[in-house]
Amino acid sequence: MTSLSHLPPRIRRAIEITPAAGTRERIVDITTTGRRTGRPRRIEIFFYRAHGATYLCSGAGGGPTGWHANLRANPAFTFHLKHGVRADLPAHATTVTDPAERAAVLAAIVDDLNQPHDPGTVRPTRLADWAGSRLMRIHFD
User: Fold this and answer.
1) What's a Gene Ontology MF term here (predicted)?
2) Which end of the chain is more exposed for a tag (fewer CB within 10 A), N or C?
């Protein structure tokens, strides 16, 4: 579990999404450092909460992604809240490699995506489709 207690309450509430959160509340931007160029790279991405921690995940299919490669090379990045609460948060990412943690987190993500109120997801979402996903845990500085 990664503590958010050092963050202001409004920011903490925006990050501590629950399965009741809508699609828009789950979308943020991240700015990574390009692994080859060293230049900032900003993208839009979904974030997830599972078991008290915050994660970035490449989603079903698990193909290579630039953001994942950039964070593996340089784990420091900026997490940009942009819907409702706006904030630019310094953070670090850690690749989730432990098989038990990966399985538990991916299962929680898929369960969350299969909630009937989440209009941004094609259902049913199958856990097997997410097995190869890039998964990183976020620590907010």
Assistant:
1) oxidoreductase activity
2) N
